[in-house]
Amino acid sequence: MMMLGSCGNDPAKTSLIDDKLFYPAFTFINQGLRNIDSMDVALFRYQTSGDRTDTTIMEKAAFRKYVESIFSPEMLAEPSKYPFQRRIFMDETIGRITISMDAQDPMATVRRMDTLLDPETDAIKSIYAEILRVEGEKTLFRKMTWTSGLQLTEGIEETDRSDTLSSRRRIVWGIPQ
Q: Does this model's pTM top 0.90?
């Protein structure tokens, strides 16, 4: 895999991203939710804990609440509150531009966010996020991937004192292309 740093030769590309802009992940996810609401599709939820997987159909309203509990507009605006390090790469083998943002402050909820873009259209293909919430002695660490038009996958590690529970959730509404 060959990774190239953004060189800024194309003014149209460089104006898309500047040091103060956090790529509009919440807007993208909100648009995805609106698309799901307008489609006649079922949402299949796969919940895995240990070696057991439970499959159910999830209502669209419940899915929206679930996603909004992960991604609040305030949380996705965090780069304006906390310093982030931004890196931009072009990967010719998969035909994607990756915008990576890593938190520089241990208080930030969003620890990392990678946005993969199609270099031809600048359309978002997927968003990967690492989200850390600490509430008293309880820590919740999520690794989440939203794949445009397809699914939301999430690995969850919940630690309470010395106990750690791990689970995996996948909610599918599209067909892989």
A: no
